[in-house]
């Protein structure tokens, strides 16, 4: 006969009303269980953070310590991927050696004043120390030292926590998909004489990834380009990609000097942004202003791509039709057809050299905020793409001294007549 649940309990699991301290304790228990394996010393944890900052992946770090990568991620995610500050004792506080002297002095029957003279400390300091940690009979040096160390942990308050107007301004721009690097530049232009409206991009990142600060809502992380829940090092490794061969390609090394210095508008970089189900979007980025155009393509074959790009480029003013730099993708195999129709020369990057189209590569990274990898891009209309392009073109860029691509291009076209 099946046993019944105990009185007051059902056979179903009950909801848990967990306080923050309960959750912290739960996290510690999980960490301990994950890693019986996880017995890491302070030095090993410091090395994990060093490797993470250097750009090593979770798998690489895990292999180095013979741990599962999930255990490494659990440790890092507790701090949002941001290494906690190294704690140091104040020179004014009692050391463990001094506390051991206090313990030995009391055991031998010395008075508080005698112990204080031996330590060259005020008697009041020794008296408070003993009273705070159990009195003469219960005082233990190691326990007192650990309690003092734990009680001295006072998290540094965040700058944004004390400046509501500033935090609201930051949040309002994050909602518009601005990056944490763009916001400080905009603040300087918007409030040139107000030093209280200043914040670094690192402070914004820390406020987002270290949720204990409670300043910026966690939901705002969804507006970051990467949408990661953990801060990744700028040195993180990125995998390259192989590309095809183009017949009669004009090398990027033959580009005129005016293209290199970005002084004249009308020189573009292009690529295909790919999604699931063999879906693609053509991206064009103007080198002088970083102005972005997105074009819907139904197929990756060269006839389709060249036809779509030709229609788009011919809509541009003559002053903005000077050159196009592309990678080695076979979608531009019919580049001669494009040049004849648009009078725009096409220059091709060296194989496996995406950095030669740095402006376009950076923009494609920005676009992944709106079109994550493995997204079916065929479901987006041209109107949808225009809205995304507008968002990018109205966001200030650090490289433009926080001017927007739209205003930069408009000013350039106006100056050239």
Automatic annotation (TrEMBL):
Stretches for region Disordered: 1-22
Domain of life of the native organism: Bacteria
Span of domain Integrase catalytic: 252-413
GO molecular function terms listed in the Swiss-Prot or TrEMBL record: nucleic acid binding; transposase activity
One of the GO biological process terms: DNA recombination
NCBIfam families associated with the record: transpos_IS30
Name of this chain's protein: Mobile element protein
């Amino acid at each position: 006969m099946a046993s019944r649940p105990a009185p007051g309990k059902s056979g179903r699991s009950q909801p848990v009303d967990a306080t923050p301290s309960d959750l912290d304790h739960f996290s510690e228990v999980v960490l301990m269980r994950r890693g019986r394996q996880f017995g890491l010393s302070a030095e090993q944890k410091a090395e994990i953070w060093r490797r993470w900052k250097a750009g090593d992946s979770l798998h690489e770090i895990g292999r180095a310590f013979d741990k599962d990568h999930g255990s490494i991620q659990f440790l890092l995610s507790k701090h949002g991927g941001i290494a906690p500050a190294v704690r140091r004792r104040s020179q004014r506080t009692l050391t463990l050696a001094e506390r051991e002297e206090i313990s030995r002095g009391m055991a031998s029957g010395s008075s508080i004043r005698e112990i204080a003279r031996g330590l060259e400390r005020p008697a009041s300091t020794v008296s408070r120390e003993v009273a705070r940690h159990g009195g003469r009979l219960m005082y233990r040096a190691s326990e007192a030292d650990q309690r003092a160390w734990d009680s001295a942990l006072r998290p540094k308050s965040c700058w944004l926590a004390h400046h509501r107007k500033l935090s609201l301004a930051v949040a309002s721009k994050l909602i518009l998909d601005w990056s944490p690097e763009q916001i400080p530049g905009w603040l300087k232009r918007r409030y040139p004489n107000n030093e209280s409206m200043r914040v670094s991009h690192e402070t914004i990142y820390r406020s987002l990834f270290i949720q204990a600060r409670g300043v910026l809502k966690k939901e705002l992380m969804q507006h970051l380009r990467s949408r990661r829940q953990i801060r990744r090092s700028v040195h993180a490794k990125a995998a390259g990609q192989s590309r095809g061969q183009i017949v009669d390609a004009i090398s990027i090394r033959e580009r005129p000097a005016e293209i290199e210095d970005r002084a004249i508008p009308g020189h573009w970089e292009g690529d295909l942004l790919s999604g699931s189900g063999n879906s693609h979007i053509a991206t064009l980025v103007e080198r002088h202003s970083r102005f972005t155009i997105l074009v819907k393509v139904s197929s990756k074959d060269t006839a389709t791509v060249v036809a779509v790009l030709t229609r788009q480029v011919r809509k541009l003013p003559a002053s903005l039709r000077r050159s196009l730099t592309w990678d080695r993708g076979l979608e531009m195999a019919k580049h001669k057809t494009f040049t004849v129709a648009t009078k725009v020369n096409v220059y091709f990057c060296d194989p496996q050299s995406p950095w030669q189209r740095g402006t376009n590569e950076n923009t494609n990274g920005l676009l992944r905020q709106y079109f994550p990898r493995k997204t079916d891009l065929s479901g987006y209309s041209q109107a949808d793409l225009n809205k995304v392009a507008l968002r990018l073109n109205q966001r200030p860029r650090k490289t433009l001294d926080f001017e927007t691509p739209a205003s930069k291009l408009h000013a350039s076209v106006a100056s050239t007549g």
